[in-house]
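Q: What would this chain look like folded?
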Amino acid sequence: MKSFAFAALIAAVSAADKFKFMQWALEHGKNYENDEEFFDRFTNWVRTDAAIDVLNETNSTATFGHNHMSDWSKEEYRTLLGRVPSDDNEEIEYTWLSEDDNSLTVDWRNHGAVTGVKDQGRCGSCWSFSTTGAMEGAHKLKSGSLLSLSEQQFVDCDTKDGGCNGGLQDRAFKYAEGHKIMREGDYKYTGKDGSCKYDSSKGKVGVNSFAYVPNKSPSQLKAAIKK
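A: My prediction, written as structure tokens:
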């Protein structure tokens, strides 16, 4: 039954789409164990391809395309979304910032404050990448030096968060208040949970303080970016 469904799906797509899929699979080194997996992955890829077409037709400010996750299921993709809401039941104190600048655009690439693209793999560690990204940019603006910081240190050593099972940037910032973060090259990313190998002598960037900006407030977000 599934073979028939696969044949019907193949027939429904154009020769160009079939060729496009095979090119993509070769480019990303995809190897499927059997026909069933091939069917599932191809189905996911077709769904992704259709979504990309819609995005490109309706968005004039960005161009969308495939990557190595294009044949993933929605459930697989959700494993990367590792932000875990706080369960500390603590009252958050928001900081209201002065809104004396009405300019809209800030591109931190123009300030040299953004490191290259990083890949978290199949580990739900997005929270650690958000944290290092913020710290890298802030450190560059303050010191003039752009350093790529270690997400793996957070994954392995921040015991308040859950490593590849998710975490929260707030708790990661608190960890960095007491532990300077090592460079990426000194504590390499593995994409899986491991034992803590922190070397304080190689710690480079810490956090002095951080503040909560009210959510759903574009004006406060702009003020925070300009701060």
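The domain at 108-226 is CATH 3.90.70.10 (Cathepsin B; Chain A).
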